[in-house]
Request: fold
Amino acid sequence: MLSKQGFLVYGFDYYGGSRNSKSGGQDMLGMSVKTELTDLTNVVDKLTSENYVDKDHLSIMGVSQGGVVASLYAAANPEQIYKLGLIFPDYALFDDVKETYQNLGSPPFDQLPDSLTHHNARLGKIYLTDALDIDIDIEDVQRKITAPTLIVHGTNDTTAPYQYSVDASQRIPNAKLVTVEGGRHRIDENLSEIAIPAIQNFLAE
Reply:
């Protein structure tokens, strides 16, 4: 899609980001927003070291939790990011993690089990501890994003509720929210019909 428009596109998945990750990791026990931020940082560092990459026009896009990670990177590295695209970013994960932690009795971090169930997924305790880190205030992160930002989100998303993106679009200084009526937390025909031309136009502007 984008490569046909003349864009250089590099796609990757996060190490241990899912049971089907092609980047490695046999489970998700060592994955968190912070480990994925490290992965993204390494990818950007590698790409910007290549002569064929236009470093002044480097855009990043993230889907679901990847959208949260992309937001963290864009806020911390405003000079690196030309544009930011977010597809149903899961900003709700921080509230979800707090709920899971409370359901576990809010124990000291060193007393958390090594693995636990969170939203029907088997994750390591690092997923909770990193998301609960007091250094991460996602609302403050959103306010620090300076790159033009496109958010695409469906109104029927029950994993990452649409309202979180509505709120984010009001905090991110230069954000545009594209609403997919009836869209859920997956890339299907309904979302693609709206998201694809929106992304193409956004990057071409």
Remarks:
- The chain has seven helices and six strands.
- Strands lie at 59-63, 83-87, 115-118, 121-124, 149-154, 175-180.
- The chain has a mean pLDDT of 92.
- The first strand starts at residue 59 and ends at 63.
